[in-house]
Design goal:
This protein is an alpha/beta fold and about 500 residues long. The chain is about 35% helix and about 25% strand. It has 14 helices and 23 strands. Helix 3 crosses helix 7 and helix 4 crosses helix 5. The chain is globular, with a radius of gyration of 24 Å. The relative contact order is 0.13.
């Protein structure tokens, strides 16, 4: 099946798995149909058949493909990354439109993702030349030691729907740079954007067969893929970008098989607004952080903690700004709030808002929906017993809470079990720097949004937000550090 046939160009298109450089068998075939409503995700998957992927058979040829790829030169890997970047750049508008139609992503976010994919691929070309080891000291005269990083083997990557383009590539790029091969399982909610488009690009760019593989599945059959990954002797690492519940299951199963896990999970991300902050900047930053991509990314701001002197004015202006955000067709460039990914997702958001209301919360705006578009919603007086007060909820909803001191703000921010990202807004950056280390999260931003990511930065979580890093440091997660020791003089033994 050629790459041109795999593209969505008609009312019904057929996609297949991409394994070993070939578009797969009828065992895993998906039809994608359009919907007519602009307020819902426009793709709807209809599956013919879906069986368990045969990742481990035959394992020897798969290992041989890994060995060949791990032996490629940095120049060859860089060439392929640059080639892939150029293809994504050329297809930018097409892929962005497809992403908007499949997931409901606004065209603004969909286009931004393509730019980020290009930048990531181009930066990764340089990562291929980074040192892969270190010289070790020794207490033994005449002994010379080095630590050398070696790839693991095959990495099984699970990719999500909510940042489908960039996160699918990110799940593959670091393992590939390190010399591993990858098998990607995209979310069943975005199999095209979160996997199969990457396969198309990799095929056209000339990646060797078997280096990048994509396996799709019908809803409810993710466990079959997980079983195949865990049971395959060729797969040495499980790489998940997803939710906490899924991570617990995968980590437990991987642990029994003694396979490494890398987990990039969700977050419950606080933004603290100190009493010396510019009001206009605070409103701008809060609006972007809370409502970007309809609140459906792990970095979104979930709770805004405002020192009491600014609380009333901030809340009034923030509510007015939220009410003015345009919503509608995600393919309209003016749209900021598009549809949630599924009807079930919308129902969960609304149920949590209603639960908070029943427990005494005040809804200042929102709490309503049309089709699959949920109105930007701002709540106060939400008790901690409400699920939306301590669990990540993917939707355009945010809590605002008043505090009386810097210490109380940190205490409220650290109340949850997640540890992904946080934000402090202040007119005095040094005040923010002094407060930042007290946050119980990995990434801490002063005078910026919680939605803040740079390709080369070691972004990642702690606690319930997972472990592992992005950027060039992520190569450590997908390699083993081996010790090589040699002596220049004979060693004296005690017997």
């Amino acid at each position: 099946m050629s790459t041109s046939k795999a593209r969505v160009t008609s009312r019904a298109s057929t996609y297949q798995c991409y394994i070993g450089g070939q578009w797969g068998s009828g065992e895993h075939r998906q039809h994608v149909r359009r919907r007519s409503s602009p307020t819902a995700a426009i793709f709807s998957p209809a599956w013919r058949r879906a069986g368990a992927p045969r990742l481990g058979r035959p394992s020897r040829p798969r290992r041989m493909r890994f060995r060949a790829w791990s032996a490629t030169t940095p120049a060859e890997r860089a060439r392929l990354f640059f080639a892939a970047a150029e293809i994504v750049r050329r297809r930018r508008a097409e892929i962005a439109e497809l992403l908007a139609r499949e997931t409901g992503s606004t065209i603004l976010f969909a286009s931004f993702q393509q730019d980020l994919v290009v930048q990531t691929l181009e930066q990764a070309a340089g990562w291929a030349y980074l040192p892969r080891g270190e010289v070790l000291q020794s207490n033994i005269p005449g002994s010379h030691s080095i630590g050398v990083r070696r790839p693991l083997g095959v990495v099984g990557s699970f990719t999500p729907w909510n940042g489908a383009s960039i996160l699918s590539w990110r799940a593959a790029i670091s393992p590939l740079v390190a010399g591993n091969t990858v098998v990607v399982k995209p979310s069943e909610l975005a199999p095209v954007s979160a996997g199969l488009i990457m396969a198309e690009v990799a095929h056209e760019a000339g990646f060797p067969p078997g280096v990048i593989n994509v396996v799709t599945h019908a809803p409810g059959q993710a466990s079959s893929f997980a079983d195949a990954v865990i049971e395959s002797p060729a797969v040495r690492c499980v790489n998940l970008i997803g939710g906490v519940a899924t991570a617990r299951l995968l980590a437990e199963r991987a642990g029994r098989a003694l396979k490494r896990t890398v987990l990039e999970l969700g977050g419950y991300n606080p933004m603290i607004i100190l009493d010396d902050t510019s009001m206009d900047y605070a409103v701008d930053t809060a609006t972007f952080g809370a409502f970007f991509h309809q609140g459906q990314i792990c970095l979104n701001t979930r709770k805004i903690i405002v020192q009491r002197r600014l609380y009333g004015e901030f809340l009034e202006k923030f509510v007015a700004r939220a009410r003015a955000l345009p919503s509608g067709d995600p393919q309209d460039p003016k749209t900021i709030i598009g549809p949630l990914i599924t009807r079930a997702a919308l129902e969960q958001v609304h149920a949590r808002v209603e639960e908070a209301r029943s427990l005494g919360a005040t809804i200042h705006t929102g709490g309503t929906y049309q089709g699959q578009i949920y109105a930007p919603t701002i709540l106060t007086d939400v008790p901690y017993s409400a699920r939306m007060s301590n669990e990540e909820t993917f939707g355009p909803i945010v809590i605002v809470e008043a505090v009386d001191s810097d210490e109380e703000a940190i205490q409220v921010a650290n109340r949850v079990d997640y540890g992904l990202t946080s934000s402090i807004l202040t007119g005095d950056p040094y005040r923010g720097f002094e407060m930042a280390p007290a946050h119980s999260c990995r990434d801490r931003h002063v005078n910026s949004s919680t939605v803040n990511d740079e390709i080369h930065a070691p972004m990642g979580g702690v606690r319930d937000s997972g472990w592992g890093r992005t950027g060039p440091r992520s190569i450590e997660d997908f390699t083993d550090l081996i010790w090589i020791n040699a002596r220049s003089t004979p060693r004296q033994y005690p017997f």
